[in-house]
User: Fold this.
Amino acid sequence: MTDTIAEVLVPTDELRNDIPFYTKVLGMRMDSIYPADNPSVAVFSGHGVRLRIEKGADVAPGTLRILTEDPDGFAEGQRRLIAPNGTQIEIEERHPPMVMPETVHSFVVRRLKDQAPWVIGRAGMHYRDLVPDRLGGSIIASHIRIPDGGPVPDMVHFHRVGFQLIFCIHGWVDVVYEDQGPKMRLTAGDCFIQPPEIRHRVLEASDNVQVIEIGVPAEHVTEIDHEMMLPTEQLRPDREWQGQRFVYNKAEGADWVPFRLPGFVCRDTSISENTKGVAGVQVVRRGEGTPQWATHDTDIHFTFVMDGTVTLEGEGREPYQLEQGDAFVIPPGMKTRLTDASDDVELMEVTLPGVFNTTLG
Assistant:
């Protein structure tokens, strides 16, 4: 294989001033320097970068970001420096702590017929935003589709996230997960939760597969893992990632029990149990009884209409006749009621936290 390397070129006026800064302050290694009698070029490497400093180079000095697990112990704790050659140096956390924004509560209704744009995202997948204001950055809810089936050009990756749900509403998709055995097929009505930082890869999908993806917080980092091969040899179904277990919940054979709201039944996905209450996911259908007005006290309450029709009434609001593909968010303390549900109605309810109180009447 051909030996190939890459360098970042930055200028200098006097190389002798740069050498001690890049080697002693930044801890880089000098790999080469020339000419010997009056050096004008030096190459330094370290921290995953190779830097060529050349006297009189007609380029901007640029910015060098160094990410470290111990920024206070690097460069004597300085976070912003300017090298003798003018290059800006920024010292940051290698893995900044995840920030969970405070939820900005609002009543949101998103209708499929409003024709919100589909945006092409990662791996060629189409994304439709279900909560445009994202409740102040606390949640992202996406309707995702892959129009053309077949192999998906995905890589082994993971998400630095607090909670993530994948719920299939149409078609099927094959995914493989770290320490969870061979590939798994997600079909309509099935769901995964992807614990924080679990490695996974989307392998193949049917034509027009559609899933709902929920992520908390809204903005989170996706990283590619170039080393791990999936599936892994180990099978560890009880493994926890930051206190959460992987969940593969199937619609087939589910037990249906009375829902927290009269007039409906539900099946539990075990997600609240396996996330230790971080989030809960219920699938809801029409049942016996008369619908009632109700309030809840959970922080985030999101619902997606997977099938059928239902009317959402909100105190002081005009009723919304909802159908397949619509979504809504109910803030805590707001009185609402679900009425006129069709026999085939099916809703997906996602709440954070997963355990909360409902008050009827």
Q: What stands out?
A: The chain has three domains: 8-93, 108-249, 257-360.
